[in-house]
Amino acid sequence: MNTLTDKARAASYREGCIVVTMESGDELRFSVADNPRLAGGNAQQLNHIEISPFGLHWPDLDEDLSFCGLLQGDHGQHQKHPTR
């Protein structure tokens, strides 16, 4: 999938996952448990997704994820481990 030629048509929350349907029919999906901000949201907040040419935005949860990051497996908001 190339996000420069394949655009997101729809995004929704289903069965613990965010599912992005592309114009080509391909789907991009990831578990909300992979992202602490999304994991704390309820179904209504998780389904309130705004799509831009560059990524997804959840206004109720103040979260943004880029398509480039998602395609690389980066689901955002990683907890930092203390360094010694």
Write the layout of secondary structure elements.
Elements: E1 8-14, E2 17-22, E3 27-31, H1 36-39, H2 43-47, E4 50-51, E5 55-58, E6 63-66, H3 67-71
Antiparallel strand pairs: 1-2, 2-3, 4-5, 5-6
**CATH hierarchy, class:** Alpha Beta
- Spatial strand arrangement across the major sheet: 1-2-3
Helix/strand structural class:
alpha+beta
Number of strands: 6
Helix content: 10-25%
- Beta-strand portion reads 25-35%
Count of the domains: 1
Unreliable segments of 5+ consecutive residues: none
The CATH topology annotation reads as NE0471 N-terminal domain-like
Compressed to H and E, one letter per element, the order equals EEEHHEEEH
Mean pLDDT: 88
CATH superfamily label = Uncharacterised protein PF10387, DUF2442
CATH 2nd-level architecture: 2-Layer Sandwich
Instruction: Please describe the biggest sheet, giving its number of strands, its sense, and whether it closes into a barrel.
Output: 3 strands, antiparallel
Shape field:
globular
Give the count of helical stretches. Answer: 3
Radius of gyration: 13 Å
Rounded to the nearest angstrom, the distance between the terminal CA atoms is 40 Å
